[in-house]
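Design request, tokens follow.
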């Protein structure tokens, strides 16, 4: 079943602004289909304008301005999510109506039922000196139900330790300080068979 999506997890700031502008334009052009949007389009436009201004002011990497930009983006995404619920109610899973509102429709769950893709671009980043922590990050996959991160000391033939995370980033703690570890990850989807990333290595500090 198709639903309108916010795309907020996929789009950078500029692309997000363009996406919201597209939705506002299309919904105004198809006012007959969407006579009483909730929230009203002018509310979404106000949130968009505030986010655009904050993004411009944050271009110089001022810490306070960056925090404001993040807050304004969050506020815009909230309005967009609420608007998507309205469109979903009107569309009743009809993809042509979702597209008429300018939204990108969701993918069918069945499209993820096959062989899962290889996890890509795994990065291991040591955290603060003395923390004994490593932060792992991998490319996000839309079909992933979980991300299975695995680790073991480099050169060891022991079994991999497993850490399941709901997001594409994962923080490993209480590792042995100054030891070098190998890391790998696989997406967990409808098909449970793993397809591991390339192994990356890092020292713990």
């Amino acid at each position: 079943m198709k639903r309108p999506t916010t795309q907020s997890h996929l789009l950078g700031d500029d692309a997000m602004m363009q996406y919201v502008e597209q939705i506002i334009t299309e919904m105004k052009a198809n006012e007959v289909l969407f006579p009483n949007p909730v929230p009203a389009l002018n509310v979404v436009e106000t949130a968009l304008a505030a986010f655009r201004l904050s993004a411009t002011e944050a271009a110089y990497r001022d810490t306070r301005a960056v925090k404001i930009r993040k807050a304004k983006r969050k506020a815009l995404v909230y309005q967009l999510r609420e608007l998507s619920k309205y469109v979903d109610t009107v569309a009743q899973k009809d993809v042509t109506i979702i597209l008429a509102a300018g939204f990108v429709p969701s993918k069918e769950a069945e499209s993820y039922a096959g062989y899962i893709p290889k996890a890509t671009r795994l990065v291991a980043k040591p955290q603060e000196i003395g923390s004994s922590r490593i932060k792992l990050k991998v490319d996000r996959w839309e079909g992933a139900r979980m991300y299975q991160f695995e680790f073991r000391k480099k050169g060891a033939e022991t079994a991999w330790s497993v850490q399941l995370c709901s997001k594409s980033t994962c923080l490993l703690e209480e590792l042995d300080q100054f030891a070098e570890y190998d890391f790998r990850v696989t997406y967990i989807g409808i098909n449970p068979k793993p397809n591991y990333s390339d192994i990356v290595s890092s020292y713990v500090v």
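Comment from the thread starter after seeing the answer: thanks! The chain has four helices and nine strands.
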